[in-house]
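Title: [Solved] Cysteine synthase 2 3D structure

Original question kept below for reference.
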Amino acid sequence: MSMVNHPKVYGTAAVATAFVAGILLTLGLKDLYSDVEDRYQKARRKSFRNSSIYRSSVSLEEHTESTQSIVEAPEIPEGIEGCIGNTPLFKIRSLSEATGCTILAKAEFLNGAGGSPKDRVALNMIKLGEERGLLTPGQGDTIYEGTVGSTGISLATLARAKGYKAYICMPNDQSTEKSDLLHHLGAEVERVTPAPITSTGHFVNLARRRAQEHTASSQDKSRGFFADQFESEANYQAHVGSTGPEIYLQTGGQLDAFVAGAGTGGTISGIAIYLKHHMHMSALRIILADPVGSGLYNKVKHGVMFSNTEREGTRRRQQVDTIVEGVGINRLTENFEHGRELIDDAVKVTDLQAMKMARWLVEKDGIFVGSSSAVNCVATVVAALQMPKGSRVATVLCDSGTRHLSKFWKKVGELGLEGEHDDLLSLLKIKAPV
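Solution (posted by the thread starter after getting help):
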């Protein structure tokens, strides 16, 4: 009997066949769907991980995944010394707009120990002392240094962290918040009357003598270690080994000028040595920022420390009572000499220009820095105006303005410099080249 002649039977068979086929298809699609779903979820998770939301938050989904999917965490620093270096380099918008160049600032005030580039130097000087057997942690050794503030703060912080004591000699005309901070960091502080370097009472000579006295009179075999930031090779080498390479990497080697002041001279020398070498002595210009009262401007520009009117026998002991702290000096240090031949030019900055620049940075960019950083920024603007439009010029922001409240920033307030301004060049009385 043919099924064609019996529609009912045919219909029943067709339904049964369709039902079986449906079951088989469903089972097949289930496996297929599982594979597709698995691929989709993996792609979705990958996309989510790459999103800014994933990078800035903890993903709940990550915790529900297999324990085999572990996010590799960065290495955790060992101690406060592990927080030194790798400071950001950022663009200062207002200065870039005023000059037509890209003005970049190395935020050295974000170093994690003492909050200045001196963290790098202090750590390197301690390491050098340990390598030479002059410092041993935990036996009462004391680090002595003559400083106007920042190096002392870095040394005091790191001394405690690494098992030493700190003794700081500093001029008594420096801001009181620096010596107050040193006391709170556990350092012994001796403030002295400013004197020429030829005097035994100069703060650097005094620190050297105190270290010698400690070692000679010690009953517990502890030693006094004179860090000697002005002459120690550990100073400029700290910047050859860290600050210079960081700037090179952060700019991709694309930099037209670097501007910095000099106190010990380690920062500008170390960075100049590294950048000039790795950029193969290209057109990169190294420019010194020098405050009034310092002799380094004349040394770079004219080859002598002083002009004819300031020659020995005719000049005053203290040339100018500048309000700027941390940069400017009237002698040549070993650290400055290491990089002096690499310095192409110098810019002289007045106290008034520095104070106006410091106020401008707060008003326009929300950047609150100290006097040496303000000097650097004025010189950077002058240097940028002498370069082709679009040039990239970098400088250093050394420390926070909180260390300069009682002197530098107090003077800013007294002079009524806290109003709004719109023309930077007019404010600083700088003429743009025609």
